[in-house]
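for the writeup, i need someone to sanity check this before i put it in the appendix. the sequnce is what the collaborator sent (i think, or maybe the updated version? ugh). structure was predicted straight from it, no edits. if anything looks off just tell me and ill rerun, i have time this weekend
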Amino acid sequence: MTRIIAYVPNLMDRSRFGETVQIVKKPSDLASAEADLILVDLSSREVLDYLPPGSRVIGFAPHIDADTLRAAVAGGCAEALPRSVFFKRLPALIGREDD
C-alpha cells in the first residue's frame, strides 16, 4: 500500500483528503516523514525547507502564484500544480479514483 502524507493547513482543503492520507500539522514534521508520496500546500514556502529525500512530492498553490510554483520545482517538488488542477487530480493521487 502506498503511504501518503500531506501538509495542508487549511481545514476545508484537508477534509478532501480522506482517511488514507496522514496529515501532518507543521512543515517541520515532513523532515522525518517516510512516505511514498507527500502532498504539500505551498502557501507557506518554508515547507520546501523540510522535504525529505526519497519521496515523491507534489505541491499546490494558486495558479496566479507562478513564482511559488517555479520555486517548488526548484526546491524539490516533482510537480507543482495550480490548486484547481491538483484537486481535480487528488482522487487519482490518493487512490480514490471513483470519487
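The mean pLDDT is 90. The helical segments are 11-14, 66-74, 83-93.
thx in advance!!
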